[in-house]
């Protein structure tokens, strides 16, 4: 059989005499080959794109270290565990090295007790100062694995005070946020970059000691944002916003705090103590046995009408007694850049010259009790008097002041000048001490600037 005959028999009879059908079959074959090539090309492109996306977006969990700055009661609880472990003291390698410091992982919880202050250093150099009586969980600590494109840090704070300082970096996308209840606080420095700023988050608990009563956020560097209840407030440098439980962020205000409540001694209607939250700390005399009097009075300072509290005891008294008020502060001030104690005082009379025999019996005294960085309790007093004692040297400068009887005098103290400096304020007292006295005080304030 010839070769031509074999080829003829290999072609279906329907195509041997139909050139158009033969051409259709050829076109179908080429179409199939083209589709297969395109599909293969798309598959290769998709695989390449997926690999590129994974290279740019695949994240890996990161770690942080925690080192004790002051105190000795900091604890870490690992994720999915119930036991707390004490953070070791005296890390020798410096911040962020992990030498002598506890390593924190995603999901771990950190807490500090009274008098303890720690520094957390993240893998990228960002820092979180955790002040006393604070608890937080590291919900997320991640960064892209192969190239520096993105990082994400999320902290859930349930109580206390944090100062967060994201480090400058070369990430193209960066998110560093603190969650507290329904509130989110984060840096917002333009675009998607959030590094290089600094903000504080202060979480106050309610009377039950568990639920969040309010969240206060303030910005020290950069631009921040506070989100809650579907609303967002933008914060510039030295601005703060307060979010009540279940509420929305308040309008920005200056990042200053008055740490004394009712420093004008306005009588509180219906309260057990008429000057709430101040409480009476008066003591009776031993011989005369009489308490002094604490009364609200109206007065003027430079033409301004004020309400003052008057502390008095009969000028006929011949034995010592104390008449005054005290207020618990219990507030951490280590985060405050500036801290000033102010008041306006007026001494009207005293029957014991100077500061008395003990040198501490003044007709008006302001006393501050605080803890320093080492946890030691300190006391500082400022006394005012109108009758000098010619038989005794004047009281030490800086602790007492001779003022003009019946005239208002200012008390202005930069608490950052105290040695050692206060890290936590415990209480403030305003009282008269001696035998017979009469004095007034108003506008008591401790202003902290962040």
The count of β-strands is 30
- Major sheet attributes: 18 strands, mixed
> Which residues form runs of ≥5 with pLDDT under 50?
92-98
- Strand proportion, as a percent range, falls in over 45%
How far is the first residue's CA from the last residue's CA?
105 Å
Query: What structural class is derived from the secondary structure elements?
Result: mainly beta
- Count the DSSP helices: 3
Residue share in helix: 10-25%
Shape: elongated
Rounded mean pLDDT score? 85
Radius of gyration: 36 Å
Describe this structure in words.
With 450 residues, the chain is mostly beta strands. Helix content is 11%, strand content 46%. It contains three helices and 30 strands. It has an 18-stranded mixed sheet that branches. Strands 19, 21, 22, 24, 28 and 30 form a six-stranded antiparallel sheet that branches. A six-stranded mixed sheet has the order 20-23-29-25-26-27, with no helix packed on it. Strand 15 and strand 16 (231-235) form a beta hairpin. The longest helix is centred in the first third of the chain and has 39 residues, at 19-57. The protein is elongated and about 140 Å long. It starts with a helix and ends with a strand.
